[in-house]
Every structure is written in structure tokens, then in C-alpha cells.
């Protein structure tokens, strides 16, 4: 069976997909830890989105994974778009989740430059927890917040700054029409990081795409509304 590859977002890690691994019984799952984050926090983070994409493709080759379904979340969605451009024949189905086609993140809860400056003034731990709180509709009171914040805090200062710079420099909108994989866009309707216009652009510009909007969720519906998210995801990849 074709495996499903998860690419996490900024300050994420493979552990955040544990609930999906359990729910997708029968579907082989590969959850990556990007350099600088999660279990690979000891590695230096890439400074460009395309470099993350090359790293992910090389890692899958090392694991002898030739063809795969691909899910990219947030910054991981940018990386997934680059992977689709670099290796279109390897990706069977593509899920772009809580992401957009521009890295400057217009409409984000704060600018990239503000986040960078607060890394210096507030420190890595406080910045990681503060940003992770915005991913949940109920912020720090959300049941999944502490586990998610613990993953975010694994990233060091270099990883935070490199990731923010990589996103800020990236723009993939011009290549959206070239994506050939059957694509699903998933979005929480209360997302503070990617407002609707970015998501709408993905939905309308990618040739073979469908849209799933999960209500009353922010940036991490897979943690806020896992049953709905898992049903949508499993239905999409098992139809291939």
C-alpha cells in the first residue's frame, strides 16, 4: 500500500501526528522530523523552503520510499508544494493542510519580523509557547496545548529564526497551476495563521483540488477535532 508522509510545520515534529497514526490503521505512515525540529532538533535547520524539500525527498529515498501520498501542514505545506514541483511523479495524492501559497503570511496573528524580534526579547521557550497557543481556538486552555508546546520548545534559537526567514522569503503562488497530484486542502475556519484568502487561492488555483473546512477550529484541527480530521484524511488517501 502507498504510504502517507507527514511533513510538520514550524516548531512541529513527528510526535504531533500520533493520533493520526493510530486512526489510519492499515495505511502505512511516515512522519518526518525536519532538521532543527522535533527529534532532529540537534540538526541545523534549513534556511530556505526548497532546501527543506530537498532534505525530505532525500530522506524518503534513504528509506526506499519511491511513491507516496504527502501531507504538509503550515510551513510543511510550503515544503510539500516544493516537493510537488521537484518530484511530481513521486506524489500520488497531496494534502495541503492549514497552509497557503505565500510565506509572508498576510493576515497572520503577527508579522514574521515581530516573531523574530520576540525570540530575542522573550527567549525561545516563551516564544514557542506563545506561538503554539495561537494554534488552538482555546489557546493555553486547549487540551492538546501542553503536548504541542512541548514539541515546539524542542527547537532552538537557530531553528526558530531560520524557519521564520525561510517562510518569509518563500512564494509558491506562481506554481500552483502546475501541481498535477489530486489535492485536498484542509482548513480550520478560525485559523489565526492562514486567513481564508490564502486557502481560497490554493483551492481555486490548483487544477485537481477539493476543499474541506473544519468548523470551530484554529490552526491544528487534527488536535482540536481529530475524529472529523481523521475521517476526511483517511477517506481521501484510501480512494487512491
From TrEMBL:
What InterPro entries does UniProt report for this protein, alphabetically? AB_hydrolase_1, AB_hydrolase_fold, AB_hydrolase_sf
Q: Does the keyword Acetylation apply?
A: no
- Residues forming the AB hydrolase-1 domain are 3-226
**Any coiled-coil regions, as ranges:** none
Gene Ontology MF, one: hydrolase activity
Any one Pfam family here would be Abhydrolase_1
Listed A to Z, the keywords are:
Hydrolase
Protein name stated in the entry: Hydrolase
Q: Which organism is it from?
A: Planktomarina temperata RCA23
Amino acid at each position: 500500500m502507498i504510504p502517507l508522509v507527514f511533513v510538520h510545520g514550524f516548531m512541529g515534529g513527528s510526535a504531533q501526528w500520533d493520533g493520526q497514526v493510530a486512526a489510519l490503521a492499515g495505511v502505512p505512515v511516515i512522519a518526518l522530523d525536519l532538521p532543527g525540529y522535533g527529534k532532529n532538533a540537534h540538526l541545523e535547520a534549513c534556511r530556505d523552503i526548497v532546501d527543506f524539500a530537498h532534505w525530505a525527498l532525500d530522506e524518503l529515498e534513504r528509506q526506499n520510499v519511491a511513491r507516496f501520498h504527502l501531507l504538509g501542514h503550515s510551513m510543511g505545506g510550503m515544503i510539500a508544494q516544493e516537493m510537488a514541483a521537484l518530484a511530481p511523479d513521486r506524489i500520488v495524492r497531496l494534502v495541503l493542510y492549514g497552509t497557503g501559497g505565500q510565506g509572508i503570511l498576510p493576515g497572520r496573528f503577527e508579522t514574521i519580523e515581530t516573531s523574530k524580534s520576540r525570540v530575542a526579547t522573550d527567549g525561545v521557550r516563551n516564544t514557542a509557547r506563545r506561538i503554539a497557543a495561537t494554534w488552538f481556538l482555546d489557546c493555553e486552555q486547549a487540551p492538546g496545548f501542553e503536548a504541542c508546546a512541548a514539541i515546539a520548545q524542542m527547537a532552538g534559537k537557530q531553528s526558530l529564526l531560520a524557519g521564520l526567514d525561510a517562510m518569509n522569503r518563500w512564494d509558491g503562488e506562481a506554481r500552483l497551476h502546475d501541481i498535477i497530484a489530486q489535492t485536498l486542502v484542509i482548513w480550520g475556519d478560525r485559523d489565526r495563521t492562514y486567513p481564508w484568502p490564502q486557502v481560497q487561492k490554493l483551492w481555486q488555483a490548483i487544477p485537481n483540488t477539493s476543499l474541506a473546512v473544519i468548523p470551530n477550529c484554529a490552526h491544528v484541527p487534527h488536535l482540536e477535532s481529530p475524529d472529523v480530521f481523521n475521517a476526511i484524511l483517511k477517506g481521501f488517501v484510501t480512494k487512491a
